[in-house]
Write a structure and sequence with these properties.
Radius of gyration of chain A: 18 Å
Low-confidence stretches of chain C: none
Number of helices of chain C: 8
Distance between the termini of chain A: 33 Å
Oligomer: heterotrimer
Largest sheet of chain C: 2 strands, antiparallel
Bound molecules: adenosine-5'-triphosphate, magnesium ion
Radius of gyration of chain C: 24 Å
Keywords (chain A): Membrane, Transmembrane, Transmembrane helix
Membrane topology (chain C): Multi-pass membrane protein
Pfam family, one (chain A): ABC_cobalt
Largest sheet of chain A: none
Order of helices and strands of chain C: HHHEEHHHHH
Helix content of chain C: over 70%
Shape of chain A: globular
Number of strands of chain A: 0
Number of domains of chain C: 2
Number of strands of chain C: 2
Mean pLDDT of chain C: 87
Structural class of chain C: mainly alpha
InterPro entries (chain A): ABC_thiamin-permease_prd
Shape of chain C: flat
Strand content of chain C: under 5%
Protein name (chain A): ABC transporter permease
Strand order of the largest sheet of chain C: 1-2
Order of helices and strands of chain A: HHHHHHHH
């Protein structure tokens, strides 16, 4: 018989299934980024980098979604790590260096946020908070890398607010909705998100 | 080394859905080094047993296992990954489900790499494994560009390179051409001679089963017969025939044409296709010197011609990768068709859209999963039937009746609410076929409809074809066992190395 | 989607990690240089490197840069009009072009070109599988995680394939994309759900099949593919770092 601490450790280390899921999400993100380039271009010609800021949230969904499903410490590190690495081969218009730095920024914030709540809270509010929290760090880095710093502070402020909103809605809310939708399909039974449901199920009626 | 025998005690297994057990009270003991063939009709639990042995169930596939299972001292459900991988290698039934690395070479190297085999040794094993399945030439091709049979070979090679002491083949030769099936049996003999424990599962009493030391017949999740093949053939012939495990011509005869019948290399073109088939005005479908190459690859199909009249039944055969699927995908418009090569009642089909073709042609994919579109068996069956009114579909009584009778015939009436993906491989195949026959069409194209299913189910499919042909529809069928259909078909086209090698009119009934 | 091409150029023969160091050096310089002139010089250097060290024809480079142009031009205009400056070059009504703004706009736009081109060179010259091997053998990242990259790369064509095959299935079954916006939306929803469903199924199958072949059995594994020699790459990486540091110091302290 395995002891409690053993089983706990097993629960916290990543299974192959977890890793494959993370890889799949990272791939989906890469494909999405590839096709979003067109929308991005359109937005860009409408309102420059300020307009493209409206959809930055979408680019962060995959890691947060992985966290929401797997719920083990380190999920963001691996998912964004894979995501950043695969962008080295699929490519983004913003370049590999920025893809990697962005991934690092997301990792730091997401891991910190969930560690602070001790991986216990997964409600809508929490996801919105996480989505919003991931924005500023990368914004500061991006501003330096792409030279946004040259803009006036008003433009910078507007851009930051746009990005925050985008992070909260397009990343936080969307992740929660996607996760719950996938969970209903019944194919996530072997992940934490599915198990949580099973634990609560008897207490419902 | 510990003895690696397999021992099941009262082994019972339930899938996650709330149905009865898929396997029930299995008591088996297989000594090390024995070659055991597990046979049984579709849905009898063969794959379930194989996957339990490898630990895939219930580890990755979920479900609930009861009773004991022991594999040389370990229980595959709880053992460490290394312990299982070193003991037991499973070739899954569905090649697509197990190819994860991209090319045959990477696929074959993957297992040994995980088990920390030194690279030079891996290199040797990869070479040997690919040679054993005749795939050296495609060593670096992306897996998704391989034909169905080539993928199955890749899957076999990947497990061979692991060199496990217990080898489990779950219907691994279903989509192989006759020559390769012969080779497969040879390969099994060799593995057996090396002292490995060998388990081969299939839906028929095939050559592998005949060469095995012991045959276990499963039906409905229970062991029905168990014994040496000759003894079963002597004593249980009636039961075997009733289960559809024996070919129809063996009802009374001693031996039918072996699977490896016919020369692998056909004598070239004594009777080639009549050229100018398109000019034949009475034809329903005419193919005139059709050639095709995938992007950046040599010709996959070279100057192929034939014609079909209403009510005709044609067979296409040929080795793995000879272009059969490519040909039918072209006919269906899933690949771009050149102008002036394919005619429907004299009209060039080049510009037709797939949907337009689908109104006239029913198409069954080689891999049944590729054509599933609905979430339940029933929805899958009636997809596209009836007029859409709002969101619900309304079938008229004759359509409903036909759908019901087809469902009954396929033995799926109890599974109408299940997801098509959760059927056994043979059940999937049957579903994909009846879902086409439920629509009245002028031509049905079936890509290997009889591979990997028992003779009983194959017979049902042939009956459907017969019915349709009698009603004036044409049937075009790709198959690796022409012996099953030769008696009734009107012509046979054999492809060899992407070219038509032989065209034969058959005495149709 | 994957730009890698098997060739025998100098950069093709350098290990991925050294190339990444080089790439980051370029990115740092791009950040550091604020004048258009500096950016022009940098872009020229990268273009020459692409041509002669990576064997990428000029035409291919131009095509790659054309992709970014769609971003760069609006970006140029926005910066040109928003950055404050003193030396007015031209003025039409409220629109004012200043020299400073022009310089900044030129620099931020050229930056994008440089960043993209250097990344493209990396993609063009690096076999993804080498990256996986390097990550495990050189950076000592546990192979199970590094393999995430390899899996992601296999899924990439697979996802596209999956989409194509589902679409083909619907068409063969007599229902392609319907006309009308509502029909299209509904169809898109079904389609997306199907792709998602199939991907989840594939995740389970893949994970099971990999474990069946011993994936994760031990903390380490061997590779049939040998790691690329790093000798030359390391020298280049060190040189690049030194050069970058030098330039950085120069721009910071001598020529601001
Ligand atoms: N993943 C699954 N979930 C639920 N039920 C399943 C699943 N896979 C198979 N079944 C059911 O379990 C039974 C046994 O299936 P199994 O795949 O073992 O049959 P089989 O003997 O291999 O058949 P075939 O010759 O068609 O491959 C069938 O009734 C099948 O519908
Ligand atoms: N998408 C593709 N891209 C490139 N080549 C392909 C592709 N699909 C198939 N091929 C190649 O075309 C040839 C014919 O393949 P096809 O699938 O038609 O064979 P097949 O006769 O149906 O074989 P099988 O009996 O194994 O199903 C093969 O050599 C195969 O490798
Ligand atoms: Mg089966
Ligand atoms: Mg085929």
């Amino acid at each position: 018989m395995e002891t409690l601490s053993q089983s706990k450790r097993r629960n916290l280390s990543f299974t192959t299934l977890d890793i494959v899921l993370m890889a799949m999400l990272a791939t989906a993100n890469a494909v999405m980024t590839f096709y979003l380039t067109y929308i991005n271009k359109m937005l860009n010609s409408l309102g420059g980098p300020v307009a493209t800021s409206t959809i930055v949230g979408v680019y962060m969904v995959y890691g947060l979604l992985a966290y929401y499903i797997i719920r083990k410490p380190g999920t963001a590190a691996i998912t964004y790590g894979i995501g950043g690495a695969i962008q080295c081969f699929v490519g983004t218009t913003y370049g590999i260096a920025s893809a990697i730095v962005a991934a690092l920024c997301y990792i730091v914030v997401a891991e910190a946020v969930f560690a602070l709540t001790r991986y216990k809270r997964w409600g809508m509010g929490m996801m919105m908070f996480a989505g919003g929290a991931m924005v500023p760090l990368w914004f500061v880095c991006a501003a330096n890398m792409f030279g946004y710093t040259a803009w006036s502070w008003q433009v910078l402020a507007v851009t930051l607010v746009m990005r925050l909103l985008s992070g909260i809605v397009l990343c936080g809310v969307l992740t929660k909705m996607l996760g719950d939708m996938l969970q209903r399909s019944g194919l996530l039974r072997r992940f934490a998100i599915g198990r949580k449901e099973a634990e609560h199920a008897p207490t419902i009626h | 080394m510990p003895r690696l025998s397999i021992k099941c005690t009262n082994l019972t297994y339930y899938y996650d859905d709330e149905r009865g057990p898929a396997l029930q009270g299995l008591d088996l003991s297989i000594p090390e080094g024995e070659w055991t063939a597990v046979i049984g009709p579709g849905g009898s639990g063969k794959s379930t047993l194989c996957q339990l042995l490898s630990g895939y169930l219930p580890r990755s596939g979920g479900g609930k296992r009861e009773g004991g299972l022991e594999l040389g001292g370990i229980d595959p459900a709880t053992a460490e990954i290394a312990e299982i991988a070193e003991r037991c290698g499973l070739v899954f039934q569905d090649p697509d489900a197990q190819l994860v690395q991209g090319t045959p070479q990477d696929e074959a190297a993957f297992g040994p790499e995980n088990l920390r085999v030194p690279p030079p040794e891996i290199e040797r094993r990869v070479e040997e494994a690919l040679a054993a399945v005749n795939l050296e030439q495609r060593r670096h091709s992306p897996v998704r560009e391989l034909s169905g049979g080539q993928r199955q070979r890749t899957a076999i090679a990947a497990v061979l390179a692991l060199r496990p002491r217990i080898v489990v083949f779950d219907d691994a030769s279903a989509s192989l051409d006759p020559a390769a099936q012969g080779q497969f049996v040879q390969l099994c003999r060799k593995l057996h001679a090396e002292g490995r424990t060998l388990i081969t599962a299939s839906g028929r009493f095939d050559d592998a089963a005949r060469s095995a030391e012991r045959v276990i017949v499963l039906a409905g999740g229970r062991v029905l017969l168990d014994g040496p093949p000759q003894e079963l053939l002597r004593k249980g012939r009636g039961l075997l025939a009733q289960l559809g495990l024996l070919p129809p011509w063996e009802g009374a005869a001693k031996a039918g044409p072996g699977l490896a019948a016919g020369p692998a290399v056909p004598a070239a073109s004594a009777h080639m296709t009549p050229p100018g088939a398109a000019a034949d005005s009475g034809s329903l479908l005419a193919v005139d010197r059709l050639s095709f190459a995938y992007a950046g690859a040599p010709l996959a199909l070279h100057e192929t011609s034939f014609a079909m009249k209403p009510g005709e039944w044609g067979i296409i055969t040929g080795e793995n990768g000879s272009g059969k699927t490519t040909l039918t995908r072209l006919l269906m418009g899933l690949l771009p068709v050149p102008i002036g090569a394919v005619f429907w009642q004299g009209q060039d089909m080049a510009g037709w859209r797939v949907r337009q073709r689908a109104a006239k042609i029913g198409y069954v994919f080689q891999q049944p999963e590729h054509q599933f579109v609905a979430h339940t068996v029933w929805d899958e069956l009636i997809y596209g039937l009836g007029r859409k009114k709002g969101r619900g579909r309304e079938l008229d009584s004759s359509e409903r009746e036909r759908a019901e009778s087809l469902l009954l015939m396929a033995g799926l009436e109890g599974r109408r609410g299940a997801s098509p993906y959760l059927l056994s491989q043979g059940e999937k195949k049957l579903l994909s076929i009846i879902a086409q026959f439920v629509h009245p069409k002028s031509l049905y194209i079936l890509d290997e409809p009889t591979s990997g299913i028992d003779y009983g189910a194959a017979d049902k499919i042939l009956r459907l074809c017969r019915e349709q042909a009698a009603c004036g529809a044409a049937v075009l069928m790709i198959t690796h066992d022409p012996a099953l259909v030769e008696g009734e078909a009107s012509f046979m086209l054999k492809l060899y190395r992407h070219k038509p090698a032989e065209y034969r009119r058959l005495a149709s009934v | 989607m994957i730009a890698y091409q098997k060739q025998q150029s100098h950069l093709h023969r350098i290990d991925p990690l050294s190339k990444l160091v080089l790439l980051f050096c370029i990115a740092l310089l791009v950040m550091r240089l604020h004048s258009s002139l500096g950016q022009v010089l940098l872009l020229c250097t990268v273009a020459c490197m692409a041509r002669w060290a990576a064997g990428m024809p000029w035409k291919k480079q131009a095509k790659a840069l054309a992709v970014v142009a769609g971003f760069a031009v609006p970006y140029f205009l926005v910066t040109l009009l928003t950055v404050p400056g003193g030396q007015v070059l031209a003025q039409w009504g409220p629109l004012r072009f200043t020299l400073e703004a022009l310089d900044t706009a030129g620099s931020v736009t050229l930056r994008m070109f440089t960043v993209f081109l250097s990344s493209y060179v990396f993609m063009f010259t690096t076999d993804p599988r080498d990256m996986v091997v390097s990550l495990t053998l050189r950076l000592r990242i546990p192979y199970r995680f590094a393999f995430g990259l390899s899996m992601a790369l296999t899924f990439l064509p697979l996802l596209q394939e999956e989409g194509r095959s589902i679409s083909a299935a619907h068409q063969v079954r007599g229902q392609g994309k319907p006309d009308g916006i509502r029909g299209k939306l509904e169809w898109g929803r079904t389609f997306a759900a199907a792709v998602m469903h199939n991907s989840l199924r594939r995740i389970q199958q893949t994970a099971g099949a990999m474990e069946a072949k011993g994936f994760g059995a031990y903390p380490d594994r061997t590779f049939l593919r040998t790691a690329m020699p790093v000798g030359k790459g390391r020298i280049i990486a060190i040189m690049a770092v030194a050069l970058t540091a030098g330039l950085w110091w120069y721009t910071q302290n001598v020529n601001l």
